[in-house]
Amino acid sequence: MLETRQELLAIDWASDELPTLPSIAHRLLSMVGNDTVEPMELAELIGQDPTLTIRLLKAVNSAYYALNMEITSIRHATVLLGMSEVKHIALGAVMTERFLTVPMEVRPLAKKLWHHMLAVAMVAQDLSQGVEEEPDLYTLGLLHDIGWLVLLAQAPQVYRSITEETDLTRDLTEASWGVDHQLWGSKLAEKWELPEPFQVVTLRHHAPMDKFTPPRYLAIISLANYLVNSMDMGIFRLSPEPPDDGLLKVLSLDWETLQEMETAYMKDRSRLESLFSVLTG
């Protein structure tokens, strides 16, 4: 273990190695939550990319959705699952392909990171059921940990070393290596010209109660992140840090309910993994 550093690793924000957001991802993000988008428009966008179309149809027909019929077209998928869900699947597929395009030696690390981010997106979407929530929680969950992508791109061996740590808390581990994935995530979200909630979530998902009461969307993403880590679907070997009492209060939860949620999601883990396997296969 390194001694605690006083400065962060230098990041070259002008580097071509930094992760970029594909143009189709930008278009999909603009469609999420936009009720004026027509099914034909979405189908045409997805249909421009044959690989994306194949991945999406595989996902729709996976055990995650457990449909009792085979879906063979994007239009059919939107009828059965709804426009919002198809947008989410498409965005997940696009981002999967983008962020697993890394050197072979670090692909297992990138795959584990993306597994975590996709799981947080799916759990956050579950937690939003029955609640009119803005902005879209799935997309916030999907991109909450993009700060780690910065480190993976510019210092992959440091990233590998951090994921192998077992002794300290996440905060102390990051400090020891001169890393701040939340700060870097918010900077990358800004560089990608993402709306403010993405910058808030990337910056504060581990410390939502710091300084002021968090917006509900941040509280939900933080809880989803904890639940995914409790399923042993995190990127660290460290035990997940329990949420703050204040966070549970914001979400009108108690500890007993939280434990019940943990148990339920642990039983549901195979369903979450089924979608990930299809998207990365």
Coarse structural class: mainly alpha
* Discrete helix count: 16
The proportion of residues forming helix, as a percent range, comes to 55-70%
For the largest beta-sheet, the strand count, sense and barrel status come to:
none
Strand content: under 5%
Low-confidence segments: none
What general form does the structure show?
Answer: globular
* CATH architectural arrangement of the largest domain: Orthogonal Bundle
Tally of structural domains: 2
CATH homologous group name of the largest domain: Hypothetical protein af1432
Instruction: Kindly report the CATH topology of the largest domain.
Output: Hypothetical protein af1432
CATH class of the largest domain: Mainly Alpha
First-to-last CA distance? 36 Å
SSE topology sketch:
Blueprint: H1 23-31, H2 39-47, H3 50-60, H4 74-81, H5 83-99, H6 107-127, H7 137-143, H8 146-154, H9 156-163, H10 170-177, H11 181-191, H12 196-204, H13 216-230, H14 245-250, H15 255-267, H16 269-280
Helix pairs in contact: 1-5, 3-5, 4-5, 6-7, 6-13, 6-16, 8-9, 8-11, 11-12, 12-13
